[in-house]
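User: I'm preparing a small set of examples for a lab meeting where we compare how different chains pack in three dimensions. I only have the primary sequence for this one, and I'd like the structure in token form so I can line it up with the others. Please keep the answer compact; I'll paste it straight into my notes.
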Amino acid sequence: MKRYILTGTPGAGKTTILRRLEHDGYTVVEEAATDVIALHQARGEPAPWTKPSFLDAITDLQRRRQEQAASRSDTVQIYDRSPVCTYALATYLGHPVTSGLARELERVRAGHIYEKKVLFVQNLGFVTPTDARLITFEESLRFEQVHRDAYTSLGYECVFIAPGPLPDRVAAVKRQLEAAP
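Assistant: Understood. Below is the structure token output for the 181-residue chain.
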């Protein structure tokens, strides 16, 4: 089974690309951070990302989703973010890497869980804020660089999916998936 990570800065269009891929029959494993944020906000915590425990909540949910998906017989799975993204988020927010996140990064590395080729969706030139995405475009550019640095520092190759019309971006992702040995 090949597990590919599709990632990028908030507001880059990643989710829209994933929905189209899912519609086209690809297995997509959902990201965790947005769900963790929504849960905490529903409990009355408006900014859960300000607490380092937020990273462990994301890490735990990511691991559970990855382990559940591992039992499927798909030949290709596309993951909406990964623990490396959580590591990038910790760096961006100035939080220490928790022991739980460090263990998960080691599990992912030792188990060769994800393909080394990461599909990195580049920003669209703007960001539309949501309740879970309170980031300016300028901040998103800084986070995009932190994100790229996190992946490359851990031995991944970022394959960039350029801005453009949705069909072009989806086709670019599919070309990368089909080009795999």
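A couple of notes for your slides: The mean pLDDT is 93. The domain at 2-178 is CATH 3.40.50.300 (Rossmann fold).

User: Perfect, thanks.
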